[in-house]
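Box 4.2: Ligand-aware structure prediction
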Amino acid sequence: MKTIFLYIRPKLRQMSLQLSIKFAGTIVELLLPWMLSVILDTYAAWGNQTMIWIWGGLMALCSAGALAGNVIANRMATRISRDITISLRRDLFQKITLLSARQEDAFTTPSLISRLTSDTYNVHQMIDRMQRLGVRAPILLLGGVTVTLSLEPVLTLVLLTALPLLGIVVSFVSRKGIRLYTRTQEALDRLICRAQESMTGIRVIQALSKTGYEKARFDADNREAANRECTAGLLMNLTNPVMNLVLNTGLTLVIVVGAFRVNNGDTQPGTIIAFLSYFTIILNALMMVSRLFVMYSKGAASGRRIAEVLDTPGEMETLSLPVANQDLHIEFEHVSFSYAKRKNDIEDINFSLLPGETLGIIGPTGSGKSTLLRLLLRLYDPDAGVIRIGGRDVRSIPMKELYTMFGTVFQNDFLHTGTLGDNIDFGRDLQADQLVYAAKAAQADFIFSRKEGFQGNMASRGANFSGGQKQRILLARALANHPQILLLDDSSSALDYKTDAALRRALAKEFGGCTKIIVAQRISSIRHANHILVLEEGHTVGYGTHETLLQVCPAYREIARIQTEEVE
Ligand code: ADP
């Protein structure tokens, strides 16, 4: 909660004003039953009508004042909690964008989404309720007990015996509640994960008639999340009946004992009526406390989950390391890496590229092709070996500088709602002629044959474009700011052979100075590369030119044979 408190601290001044208004309103509210007892026992007994009117008017004024104070304070509370939630969400989002790929893998994307949405909502609710009830409930409780003590000490003692019992119930419930709500949020993570997977793959699911199967899997997760919420809710709901039972038993005792005392002349009926009013106030205050504990349990569980992300130390620091051979542009030297830190996903990879050279990478799915690109982008650090760009170890290049070097197209790259132009520009404020140049080089001529051109509408994830069109838009984005290094991960797989060939020619002509790494399924996309790396299960099984590999690498020869047969 220390981390969450850092967000509350700047609002403490506003909060104290809000709590003071709440405090004043609550005190006035507390005085009302006492005023009633004065009217009943003093002025009504004497038959003094004027004083009854005066005190009655005063009571009405106090009620209106308390109500107005409450409304104002509640509105302030809403604004304060809104502001706190906005800054908490903003920082959490920023932190998520700064997490390293390894840290993101560890949290998982669905969990990060639910931390950003439902967890921040729970914290919002907690802060809001704390302000609304956090002062009001204890004052009503303590004030109620104090006033009743002065009114009728004997009867108050009856009441007080119940309080320790209630304290035990509340502390038990809230401790268990935090644990149960943490489990509920974890189930929600899984539910979001399932929904996300199903929505991403919805076309495939429909095509393979797997909707029933997916629905059953979603139902199971949905039920699990609902059941956990229900278990937590049931426990929380225990507090209300227990409190009611204890307090109403106390109330019955008060009435019985009170009746005897009035009969014996030890007290007056007005006092008993006021006492009962205070008793109701105390009861309500306790209900508030129990609601507060529910919100606290939920909010604290969520607060911890948010703090876990916010407090994650930054990885991928920039190190100062010696500079090696600057003639080479990209160099992998004995690079090994494992995601799970068990079996290596990439083992002892070596290659080097001069500026302007092209490396083609080919191999079956899961052989580690994309991993090599991720390592070059420093999304992960290798476990062994060195990766250099321009002779500098990538770990010594500041992230900001590193990212300006690359133009990248990944397999499931990101297209967002907006215009086509926005998607290519990607917030870089490029000139119109730069967009045209990039689109032409990327063979995205279809943009020019459309009436709206770059103003054409792009649906979420580019759903209104074909696979080949999306690949060319992404390529135009990667080329638009003339990167030093171009990384293309299977980015021409959806293009027909003719367009693919035109693209290769355009890249060679217009982006000749740019060093390229091209991951491809088709040999035709990489056969002209200066070097080709053939991967299998993270190992190099061939490295050389197309002609050399055809002679010395059986795996490459086999891929070439199959693809030639396919084309024929
Ligand atoms: P390719 O691009 O050749 O299809 P990848 O480089 O994506 O293969 O994956 C290489 C291996 O690393 C595979 O066994 C894959 O399961 C594993 N892998 C890829 N990404 C992750 C990840 N984020 N966490 C754990 N393992 C991963």
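In the box above, the bound molecule is adenosine-5'-diphosphate. The pocket of adenosine-5'-diphosphate is lined by residues 105, 339-340, 345, 363, 365-371 (CB under 6 Å).
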